[in-house]
Design goal:
The protein is of the alpha+beta class and 156 residues long. It contains five helices and four strands; from the N terminus they run αααβαββαβ. The protein folds into two domains: 63 residues, Orthogonal Bundle (Arc Repressor Mutant, subunit A); 74 residues, Alpha-Beta Plaits.
């Protein structure tokens, strides 16, 4: 499991950035300018801080969320039961696939959960089989039956 950050790992500007970046950025030539101005730092420092927040594990990713289904592709939630002594090895193999997003470790028999996002619906099964072949472990697939938009925001 991911280690908890020290209580002093994030300063006021880091918390401001995390909170503002969850609300989206403007589609302009200078998308970081508004948050940089609010934080009274340069746009370059915003970018550097985002990289640092990823490095220390305060955020797991930063980028757009694209709807593969709306573009003719498919998503599928997947889970694996990974022996703990192989977890780092398997997560590296799984994450090497461009189709893999949102990979998380959980305290459960099914301890690795990730999303496959593919250009074509048939590619879900192909990607899962490739991962099974590389890891020797079963990839359980939980295709979406209904979509719910719940929104998710965490106040830093």
């Amino acid at each position: 499991m991911r280690a908890t950050l020290a209580s002093d790992a994030l300063d006021t500007i880091d918390r401001l950035l995390i909170n503002r970046l969850q609300d989206g950025l403007p589609l302009t030539h200078a998308p970081f300018a508004p948050v940089a101005a609010e934080a009274n730092i340069s746009e370059a420092e915003v970018v550097d801080r985002i990289a640092r927040l990823r490095e220390i594990g305060a955020i797991t990713r930063f980028g757009p969320f694209l709807d593969a289904e709306a573009m003719g592709g498919a998503f599928c939630l997947c889970a694996m039961a990974v022996p703990q002594d192989r977890f780092d090895e398997v997560v590296t193999l799984v994450n090497a696939h461009a189709e893999v997003a949102h990979n998380y470790e959980r305290q459960h028999k099914l301890n690795m959960w990730f999303v496959l996002a593919c250009e074509k619906p048939d590619d879900i099964a192909k990607s899962a089989r490739r991962i099974e072949g590389e890891t020797g472990l079963k990839v359980l697939r939980f295709p979406k039956q209904h979509e719910f938009f719940i929104g998710f925001r965490v106040e830093a």
